[in-house]
What we know:
This protein is an alpha/beta fold. It folds into three domains: 5-110, PAS domain (Beta-Lactamase, 2-Layer Sandwich), CATH 3.30.450; 150-316, 3-Layer(aba) Sandwich (Rossmann fold); 320-454, Helicase, Ruva Protein, domain 3. The chain has 19 helices and 14 strands. The strands form four sheets. Strands 2-1-5-4-3 form a five-stranded antiparallel β-sheet. It has a five-stranded parallel β-sheet with strand order 7-8-11-6-12. A two-stranded antiparallel ribbon has the order 9-10. The radius of gyration is 37 Å and the shape is elongated.
Amino acid sequence: xxxxxxxxxxxxxxxxxxxxxxxxxxxxxxxxxxxxxxxxxxxxxxxxxxxxxxxxxxxxxxxxxxxxxxxxxxxxxxxxxxxxxxxxxxxxxxxxxxxxxxxxxxxxxxxxxxxxxxxxxxxxxxxxxxxxxxxxxxxxxxxxxxxxxxxxxxxxxxxxxxxxxxxxxxxxxxxxxxxxxxxxxxxxxxxxxxxxxxxxxxxxxxxxxxxxxxxxxxxxxxxxxxxxxxxxxxxxxxxxxxxxxxxxxxxxxxxxxxxxxxxxxxxxxxxxxxxxxxxxxxxxxxxxxxxxxxxxxxxxxxxxxxxxxxxxxxxxxxxxxxxxxxxxxxxxxxxxxxxxxxxxxxxxxxxxxxxxxxxxxxxxxxxxxxxxxxxxxxxxxxxxxxxxxxxxxxxxxxxxxxxxxxxxxxxxxxxxxxxxxxxxxxxxxxxxxxxxxxxxxxxxxxxxxxxxxxx
Length: 455
């Protein structure tokens, strides 16, 4: 058998090691991959008989010899300190079923296994990166104002994420202004009802004499002043969606009875109506009141309390999640700019002061303050001297940060902005015309310098 130049070229393209012998075991061809696996020159093998190489120990054992003996395909395994080799010898026959050549393929499984491990590790790393990217993309998410830098708020989002796909009732507890509506929307957008209506009802803002008609609607002529065409109530409007009952503790007892009946029977009638209507809604309730005390005082029904308290989530006040304050400030300054066109920058010492403040009014108080500061601060620069006295009085001793500190903080702010906008350290560094190494070094340096003060 003669191996042509065309076959030479083809064999050298194969990644596995290939050694070809004739019917007597004389080596005809050794491809480049085989030469690399065993670190040999072709002239050391070509023209020699495979038996000689086995006898002198050059080759540990040969599947080629076993193929010549059995006239069948043979696979052998050989391991040493450097390689895990798999030899597969395949006979080639003529028209008389006589062997004319043996093609022996050799593969280093250790190298392949290492490659598999590398691919597996790469997939795992990519999965973690994707999860982190999804988290950071979803941190402010599609819901305005949802920031979760602190471990406390990440815990809240974890609880909310677990219950979102399940239709259980949720009770959001927390002080006024902590963002209960934001969490309610977070749950709704991750539920199977996300494409349906999200109806918010502030139970403390509806006059008691209008509550029943607002919740259940009314038919034409049901009472004096009723609309000629009647009106659907919240349960109709929220059908298949989510009904968010804010300030549930302010609901009068009479309406609590009717609400409980609707939740249990999933049906109701409009005021003045005779037709039974069905409503499939998911209830999320919220309160800043101690419902347990209201139950004890007979101001809130115990059965309704347990019906709504299936999955309680406590949202901590802003003073207990201080790591969220700097990103919240940045987020709302951006929103104020989008709404009013005002451009504002806040100094690091002002951020530090706001972070240490107790925030009795929580996020609502923070938003109102930032909007006021964008109006009164000259040139859109916010410094501690622009803050109301109660903010600086709460600090043990206040010393303005020097100019160099201001410069460092502004640079840190710009690094964060670029990273958030570009999505990767490489692109962020390019946008700021610096190397990736310099970008990462500066970012880590400033994180240690500034973020430690916010904990």
